[in-house]
């Protein structure tokens, strides 16, 4: 497969199509359930707004999988968009569980609902209300995702091929989040353990599963799907490595999160685990000191960054990303993957591995 | 319709069939996702156990709806059992939101997972872990419910008639819970407001919607369904009134909850709201004093109970339950409802309105 790709503009237009379906569906559902109710006044606007901020990465991969076997289709765009609502479910509830205050540069949904509770002057804990409300909207995103897929307009026999992949994705999401809750509470994992968790959770969830789901809906055969699975596994890992680099070195203006958020959260991300594995004796001492800090502020973020760069982990992770991206593109066989789909896949691989947010 | 009914033993056997389907499905899913994982060690047993404690009231109503139009069917039992998993989702997440420590006489799921976290000696907040884990298992119950229904074995065209009712139930559950969160934080509602919330949430959810769902799967016509809807609305209200009486006067050995739990939770339940409406001037003073107490302990529960009895609200609510039960039975037209289904409905109405737990 050559490096010539769908122009980024094409990907953006497709992403907007997916987002329009997801957003439109949620706007209608939110109006149906919450319009005219005092307790639903914020939900009518805030819940669709949350969807509107998405990048539709998972729908784009699902749609690329679809295009490996079928022509352009509005019904397939709707089916793919269901994955964006599944992602909204995961984000909203993860933010509650992790106590994350910011999402996409704005207050997280539970924070918005907590503030609103305060503004209403209601009795009881505003923080508790915010968390409960966000959990409920997460539940609704989960319900709406399945409903959008079922009502996408794809024929029942097509859908029947997609459900097992969709069910696996939903289950893996919860199972992976449970592993994450426990991981957070443990010591730094080994590089191998980390790769295992990463493959099961983010890697599969973001790239590989959506691709396989889309290919299944399109009725693609085993040979083509095997190539997509390999591509997806590699791009998924590269995506997560890049995400972890951004969690340490990313620009707040671009990521929408405070600088070094993952360090502040003491997240055992790939870049931290790799740095620990690559540290020499003196660096190991610095490492132990930083890990022992009671809280990670701006100054500690600066020290962490210097240490990670000094171990060579930042550069090495960049190499690992490029290696995986190259290997992924090589897994796409032009003899079995139609050109428009191959172009989409190449553009998506580039977006996942070069992206700055 | 006469009062001769399916013997309670028949209802129990049917309930066991529903529960076996729900429990078996969850046991398989839990083993599939959590067996062999250290973080899933408790989930493999505790999550199916949670299902095993259920009474399958909603599946029984759904199945009664089914039997209004179709003969006995294992696939229909599975489809009905999906509502038990939906109920598990609601219970688990409601207990987290309400901070309820007990469920069915045992520690709530979030409490079990919090204690387990402590026993493992893991770092981080055990309470927080328990809540997050329970929320995730709630999510999985929501997913598994839909999956059990989809994979019940009912033909796609039958399922297609049931989905709108199922979707409405799921959405109403979340919407009703949001209203509840806000209600808890407000002053005592009026009797009319309370009836409105009660109809929208528990009443519809427990009886009417499951009946309509089952009847839709069975392909019942509008006349029959209208009768079921009327029956369901009335029995649902009576069920909730009875539940509220038990929340104030129920025996802990039977309810599985501390005596006067609703009073301790300051729940504005039907019996409290009715007592407020029926109180004379002197009783209103006592009422205000009890409402103003900083905490409701054993002694206050005793005083609350005396006051409620003295206003006449306990007896009046008993009359309202009987009125609704009688009116509900009259809504079942023997000319359109087949005898086995009518027997089931009568037995269920009796169970909902005379039950002591």
- Using the coordinates shown, work out and report the CATH topology of chain A: Farnesyl Diphosphate Synthase
Name of the level-1 CATH class of chain A: Mainly Alpha
Q: What's the mean pLDDT score of chain A?
A: 91
Work out the count of structural domains of chain A.
1
How would you describe the overall organization of this protein?
- 2 copies of one chain form a homodimer.
- In chain A, 76% of the residues lie in helices and 1% in strands.
- In chain A, β1 and β2 (106-107) form a beta hairpin.
- By secondary structure, the first copy, chain A, is mainly α.
- Chain A has 16 helices and 2 strands.
- The first copy, chain A, has one domain: Farnesyl Diphosphate Synthase.
- Chain A has a two-stranded antiparallel ribbon with strand order 1-2.
- The longest helix of chain A has 29 residues, at 156-184.
- Chain A has helices at 8-34, 41-52, 57-67, 74-98, 109-120, 126-150, 156-184, 191-217, 222-249, 252-255, 261-264, 270-278, 281-292, 298-311, 313-330, 339-354, and strands at 102-103, 106-107.
- Chains A, B: Pfam families: polyprenyl_synt.
- Chains A, B: GO terms for molecular function: metal ion binding; prenyltransferase activity.
- Chains A, B: Its cofactor is Mg(2+).
